[in-house]
Amino acid sequence: MSTEIMMALVMNLLPLLLTAVLVRSDQNMVPLKSFKIYENVTYVCIDIYKQPGLDHPLLQNHTIQMKSSVSKPELNNQFGKNKTYKNKMECPDGTVPILRSSKEYISNAQLFAKKYFHPLSGDSPGTHIAGVRSSNGPYRGVGAWFDGFPLNIERDQASYTQVYIGSGLNNQVNFIQTGYMTNPGVFGDGRLWTYGFWKGKDGKGCYNTACPGFVQVSRDVPIGKPADPEVPDWTRCSIHQDKGTGNWWLTQRISNEAYIDIGYWPKELFDLIGNGANMVGVGGAVQAARSGPSPPMGNGKFPNGDHKGSSLISNIEVLDSNYVQRKMNSFPIEQLLDSPKCYGLKMGKIPPLHVSKLGFFFNYGGPGGNSCGI
Ligand SMILES: *[C@@H]1O[C@H](CO)[C@@H](O)[C@H](O)[C@H]1NC(C)=O
Ligand SMILES: *[C@@H]1O[C@H](CO)[C@@H](O)[C@H](O)[C@H]1NC(C)=O
Ligand SMILES: *[C@@H]1O[C@H](CO)[C@@H](O)[C@H](O)[C@H]1NC(C)=O
């Protein structure tokens, strides 16, 4: 081969060689894929085995459960809306979306978790509830359909719609809850967010991924995400214990979309709910500063007897001790309403024709105000 030909070859190959080098160095530091869905709301796709949730000391030897084993009942979509997830994310295979959280968010969330009331404690100042619960466990799960409404919530206030499970023994509690929350003090905005919250063995726990514990498994739907602002989302939220592993799964379904197993809280985190939870409940809750007014709950309107007039929670179902799905009111239930001046609760009564559609349901909510009591 002549020198000229050699040179020509090298010159021709040069761009290729350079490209190869670039690609290699690129692979060494592949930027993590991320989704910015609003200002200050970015999800980063993190290797499922390196997610921060697994940093909990009790999860040192934890094996990730990739799929929930409980079969999911197909409920009719009685609300007729064809809604799809907006801002749909899809992390690459082997990665999961984790909210990029600021130091401020982490410390706010942890502070809030400390003063957070829970459904098993007595009263805490500024907290009001409207809902139902049943304490005839062990239960293996609870789920319900509900909607979320954008509300005006001040920085020192919070408003929730939630389903929860829990057990208490002496001064100790284990519990898990999920639903919608507006909580500017934690999220730094007045948006409606889906969320999960837990408290485990040592009395510790937190929201979403603000501390280790929750194991994210879905590649598309993270625990904790702002709802679409335009349309209230009809969402089914449920928590259930996996029969095989004892882990507590968080499942969500928005309107006609498929059920999504978002992830789970591993059984290692808990010491009182290994064989089910004593108590399950569903309802609205608000929190206010000790001296300030109480925020609105639900859609801000009192139930007026028409199931469309105020916020509705429907198809409330539990998994009994044998993992059989039953209407919650096939067990004894308590109605909870501690501030009837500001909020209301109306158990569902509609013509028999519609009974099968809404299942066991109730309306709840109200405007809040200055004289709700403490
Ligand atoms: C984003 O975060 C910064 C810093 O906390 C804040 O000043 C800003 O108002 C936030 N933006 C939105 C839209 O919430
Ligand atoms: C994990 O396994 C090691 C080795 O068997 C053991 O020493 C350690 O206590 C385990 N950690 C937990 C949190 O179970
Ligand atoms: C929802 O979408 C399905 C499939 O695209 C369609 O058959 C159905 O008519 C739609 N329902 C409504 C209420 O728009």
TrEMBL record:
<dbReference type="InterPro" id="IPR004314">
    <property type="entry name" value="Neprosin"/>
</dbReference>
<dbReference type="InterPro" id="IPR025521">
    <property type="entry name" value="Neprosin_propep"/>
</dbReference>
<dbReference type="Pfam" id="PF03080">
    <property type="entry name" value="Neprosin"/>
</dbReference>
<protein>
    <submittedName>
        <fullName>Protein neprosin</fullName>
    </submittedName>
</protein>
<keyword id="KW-0732">Signal</keyword>
<dbReference type="InterPro" id="IPR053168">
    <property type="entry name" value="Glutamic_endopeptidase"/>
</dbReference>
<feature type="domain" description="Neprosin PEP catalytic">
    <location>
        <begin position="120"/>
        <end position="373"/>
    </location>
</feature>
<dbReference type="Pfam" id="PF14365">
    <property type="entry name" value="Neprosin_AP"/>
</dbReference>
<feature type="signal peptide">
    <location>
        <begin position="1"/>
        <end position="25"/>
    </location>
</feature>
